[in-house]
Design a protein that fits this description.
218 residues, 59% helix, mainly alpha, single chain, two-stranded antiparallel sheet
């Protein structure tokens, strides 16, 4: 038996043809009918409803277990494949990152040089303007610095590289951030509610007990 045949034999791919799964499904259909037709008006009516909830829990557990059995081989293969390709991609990702960072570092350096050259020229022109105002003439010509101009795009036979705007954000003062941009930390608040109930007040938050139905199957 080849490796491919072994893998195919281990992987189940048709839940609708699985007798065990379909037995759970048929049970579920019957329980759905009972649930929709059920009327609870007395305490005695709670007993068969409790029995059905226990059976429902078992059917849910059975269906979920079957789902995991179907998916486990795929998930293991996906994980192994992702791990393998992650390793295979590492050198090329590093090459990409290093090259991009070096290009960006060069562009930034050229930008700073250009800004400094423009600042020097601005100062020299301002000095010349003031001399004209003072003396009515220039004693010497304005010697401007050549401003370096780096191309915004580099084009070769293999591709084109250029700078592109990529606007992003940084929160500088959360206290003055408008309320509509503040995101509630639901994970933290739920943890506080479960652990401290309403004994740890937080401004703007109400902790309360919203009871739910609990079921313990036998």
């Amino acid at each position: 038996m080849t490796m491919e045949t072994q893998i195919t034999a281990l992987i189940k791919i048709a839940p609708s043809s699985d007798l065990k799964v379909m037995a759970f499904y048929n049970q579920a259909l019957e329980l759905q009918k009972y649930a929709e037709a059920r009327v609870i008006t007395t305490v005695e009516d709670l007993k068969p409803a409790t029995d059905d909830l226990s059976l429902i829990a078992k059917v849910k557990k059975g269906i979920e277990s079957s789902r995991k059995d179907y998916l486990q081989p795929f998930q293991e293969h996906i994980k192994e494949t992702n791990d393998a390709f992650k390793t295979l991609m590492e050198p090329i990702e590093t090459a990409d990152t290093v090259t991009r960072n070096k290009i960006l570092a060069f562009q930034l350096k050229q930008k700073l040089i250009r800004e400094e050259q423009e600042r020097i020229n601005s100062l020299r022109l301002e000095a010349a303007r003031k001399e004209m105002e003072l003396k009515g003439e220039l004693t010497e010509s304005v010697n401007l610095v050549e401003v370096i101009q780096t191309p915004s795009r580099i084009s070769t036979d293999m591709g084109v590289v250029g700078m592109r705007d990529n606007w992003t954000y940084e929160v500088t003062d959360f206290s003055i951030l408008p309320d509509e941009y503040k995101v509630v930390d639901t994970t933290m608040l739920n943890a506080i509610a479960k652990r401290h109930h309403d004994t740890k007040p937080i401004p703007g938050v109400r902790f309360f007990n919203k009871q739910i139905l609990a079921l313990n199957t036998r």
